[in-house]
Request: fold
Amino acid sequence: MRTLARTASLLGLLLAFTGCGDDDGPTPTPDSGTDSGTDSGMMTMTDGGPDPDPDGGPPAPMPRGAANPPALGTQIDRVGRPAISSALIHAFDGDMATRNAAKDAYNADGTASGWGAEWTDEIRTSLAILDSLDRNCGNQLAADQTESRYTFLAGVLADDQLYVNAASGSCGTYLGLEAQVLGVVEDGGCGGRTPNDDVIDRSYSVLAAGILTGVDDTITTDDATHDPDTFPFLAAPTE
Reply:
């Protein structure tokens, strides 16, 4: 009985080894079907990168970068100058639905070459209202530089991008570069902005009184400490 049991066990092991291979050697791992190409060596992934193990299962995804950028969806914001949409696009429209739709359309407009023609008239109307905030019409930045008082600045702001002068050796003045181009200051610095810039104070001062500061919303900082010198510059999110 003991001999019969041992024989059965040996036979089972033999059959097991026979099922794992064939006469030519061990059976290769089945192809997962996720790689492409016909080369028996290095295969190519469907995203253009090499598949180092064409028969070892799904290839590892190629890291994101210049050779494998993410697919962009619908544009929802320009990430241009802050407060332009809030202050100048249907800002005084009493119909909230119409106002929100106009701001969404503005932010979704990705055709920079057409911004001037599309948005200058709307911005000019809002500029005229904001210029009256200090009860002194005509002292807004760049007012009266064209026959129509607010057309010039409206065209500048419709080109809603942050410009940076990489040749400048100083930074830290939001809208300084634009002010330099318009002749308001001699040296506006590198342009752009930092997380610590009071952009609302600067924007409304320029739009209401033509000065770089003075029209204040009384909010000077947020409740976090940002580091303008160390990437990613913004403070860590709060829990």
